[in-house]
Amino acid sequence: MSWWRDILRQCVFMCFFIIPIPIGAYTIHNGSSAVVALISYNVLYFCIPLLYLGFDEARFGRQQRFICRRSYVIMWIVAAVTLLVFSLEIEDIWKNSSFWEWPTLARDIVFIIFMYVEVSMTMLGAFILTQLRYMDTAVTGGVHEK
């Protein structure tokens, strides 16, 4: 299997642990549910892949390449800052969007897709960053730090 397909497949499994709690918190629909969902998502989105990358089984592609934890943290920060800047720029448009008039189930599906894409893009970016950093040692058996 190619490295990118392997990463996307592993992200599906990680999202089974990342997504249900924030979606459940959001569907409560009280005043603080969105804040609880956002905080729980970000904590899980940071911790679960970071912990997974510490296992020896966290290898991708035919060549069994790894993702460095440091690269993941860097990409997670880049994704968080990018999303924050984007959110601040379109805040008024987003608040007045017809998206909020959609049925709850449709909004939940959009949020689930967005969360999967965000986790996947962060992992793909971390993989590429790791490969650039460890070009000569990224294959199993090479000296590397997790």
Give descriptors for this structure.
146 residues; mainly alpha; 6 helices; elongated; disordered C terminus; membrane; transmembrane; transmembrane helix
Write the topology of this structure:
Elements: H1 3-18, H2 20-26, H3 33-52, H4 69-89, H5 91-95, H6 104-133
Overview in brief:
Keywords: Membrane, Transmembrane, Transmembrane helix. This protein has helices at residues 3-18, 20-26, 33-52, 69-89, 91-95, 104-133.
Structural class: mainly alpha
- State the helix count: 6
What share of the residues lie within helices?
Answer: 55-70%
Strand content: under 5%
Distance between the termini: 23 Å
SSE arrangement, N to C: HHHHHH
Query: What number of structural domains do the residues give?
Result: 1
Quaternary form: single chain
Mean pLDDT: 86
Describe this structure in words.
The chain has 146 residues and is mostly helical. The protein has one domain. It is built from 6 helices and no strands. The protein has helices at 3-18, 20-26, 33-52, 69-89, 91-95, 104-133. The longest helix is centred in the last third of the chain and has 30 residues, at 104-133. The radius of gyration is 17 Å and the shape is elongated. Mean pLDDT is 86; it is low at 138-144.
